[in-house]
Automatic annotation (TrEMBL):
<feature type="domain" description="FAD-binding">
    <location>
        <begin position="124"/>
        <end position="163"/>
    </location>
</feature>
<dbReference type="InterPro" id="IPR050407">
    <property type="entry name" value="Geranylgeranyl_reductase"/>
</dbReference>
<dbReference type="Pfam" id="PF01494">
    <property type="entry name" value="FAD_binding_3"/>
</dbReference>
<dbReference type="Pfam" id="PF13450">
    <property type="entry name" value="NAD_binding_8"/>
</dbReference>
<dbReference type="GO" id="GO:0071949">
    <property type="term" value="F:FAD binding"/>
</dbReference>
<dbReference type="InterPro" id="IPR036188">
    <property type="entry name" value="FAD/NAD-bd_sf"/>
</dbReference>
<dbReference type="InterPro" id="IPR002938">
    <property type="entry name" value="FAD-bd"/>
</dbReference>
<protein>
    <submittedName>
        <fullName>Dehydrogenase (Flavoprotein)</fullName>
    </submittedName>
</protein>
Length: 369
């Protein structure tokens, strides 16, 4: 099989890049190792206002808007509540969103192979292993949309993520008529070392999760989630059911990688490290970077020269991440509950509240490439 572009991974980054390229008239093959797009979901699916403003996400896949964020110190006493005048977040039904995006990709002409794993390069071909066995594919360009631990990045000799958090959450339906939708964040390094524990309650579903540096969880990620679940805020009168959907995975927080393209292809989404180092939000960055990826690949295919891909430069984007990388290093240093509690003394001041509002309700999720 010969195609213009082989996209590896049907997460949001891969689906978006593939669709854009097919709409530009290129022959695109998209392969995904999962046999269904509705299983093994990794993300909470919180979309920020800026993404909702700039990208036409299917409204039927989005939950109710959230304007309220509640920040808790260890022990959960005297939380800080921030309320935006605008709708800031919506949690997507990710299974429905992936299926809708895949349908749009197929309608644009993308050939999608599920249950098909990228297994490396063999000479000038790529080896795919699917339900019917191995196949060789020749592609002008390969797009690594294969997540934080990208095999495509390794095979193309591009940069790879070194700084990762790991996160896990449980998702379950909640009865209607409860609390107003809110995003509850707990800063407690004994539960979530280097990041946050969270409860997102949008009035339809609850997401209860923790994330942090893998080697810093005192009793491992799973135990931390169990402990948090037992006392999670923001769910008064809601019983935690036995049957929950479990999600989780690595989150790159080292900033966009420097070398994300070469003559044979490029990286998008988590594979490129396109995640906000501070908030660990990757859905907005993966859409924005995929737009740029599709533009440069379209140009390279049209003029028939791979030099167009040099415009796809992670180092240039990375320079605009300096502030967020500094804040990430600061958050990583909050290593004890006492230090987290002290940080709340600052957070309760007008200046602290203003800074937190800027991070949580600002427009700075990812620089426009
Ligand atoms: C617990 C958790 C919660 C999160 N919550 C949020 C949130 O609420 N908001 C937000 O903005 N960000 C969030 N993030 C980050 C966000 O989910 C990611 O940045 C984003 O989903 C990345 O999309 P992607 O398409 O690059 O990668 P992925 O969604 O990881 O997709 C990669 C795909 O590649 C496939 N793949 C991998 N290897 C191969 C192979 N060899 N062959 C074929 N297929 C392959 C995988 O199966 C996968 O489907 C969260 C992350 C985690 C872990």
């Amino acid at each position: 099989m010969t195609v213009d572009v082989l996209v590896v991974g049907a997460g949001l980054a891969g689906l978006h890049t593939a669709t854009r390229l097919a709409r530009a008239g290129h022959e695109v093959l998209l392969v995904e190792r999962r046999s269904t797009l509705t299983g093994a979901i990794r993300t909470t699916g919180i979309f920020v206002r800026r993404t909702l403003d700039d990208f036409a996400l299917p409204p039927g896949c989005l939950g109710p808007p959230i304007r309220r964020v509640v920040l808790y110190p260890p022990g959960l006493r005297r939380p800080v509540t921030l309320v935006s005048a605008r709708d800031e977040y919506r949690v997507a039904d990710m299974a429905a969103l992936y299926v809708t995006a895949a349908r749009a990709a197929a309608d644009a002409g993308v050939r999608i192979l599920l249950g098909t794993r990228y297994a490396g390069r063999r000479g000038d071909c790529v080896l795919l292993v699917g339900p019917d066995g191995p196949t060789r594919v020749r592609a002008r360009f390969v797009v690594g949309a294969d997540g934080a631990r990208s095999r495509v990045a390794r095979d193309l000799g591009l940069d790879r993520n070194q700084h990762l958090l790991v996160g896990a959450e449980e998702v379950f339906a909640i009865p209607a008529g409860g609390e107003a939708p809110a995003f509850h964040c707990v800063l407690d390094p004994s539960l979530a070392p280097g990041y946050l524990a969270w409860v997102v309650n949008d009035g339809r579903h609850a997401h209860v999760g923790v994330a942090g540096y893998a080697d810093r969880f005192p009793d491992g990620l799973r135990r931390a989630l169990q402990r948090f679940r037992a006392a999670a805020p923001g769910l008064p009168g809601v019983d935690h059911p036995e049957q929950v959907e479990r999600r989780g995975g690595p989150i790159p927080v080292g900033g966009v990688l420097r070398r994300i393209s070469c003559a044979d292809g490029l990286l998008v989404g988590d594979a490129a490290g396109a995640v906000s180092p501070l908030t660990a939000g990757g859905l907005d960055p993966c859409l924005r970077l995929s737009e740029l990826a599709a533009t440069v690949l379209d140009e390279a295919l049209r003029i028939g020269r791979p030099e167009a891909l040099t415009r796809y430069d992670g180092a240039a984007l990375r320079a605009r991440f300096r502030g967020r990388l500094t804040l990430r290093r600061g958050l990583a240093q909050v290593r004890t509950p006492a230090l987290a509690a002290a940080a709340f003394t600052l957070l309760r001041t007008p200046l602290g509240r203003a800074a937190a509002s800027r991070i949580l309700f600002g427009d700075g999720s990812f620089p426009d490439p």
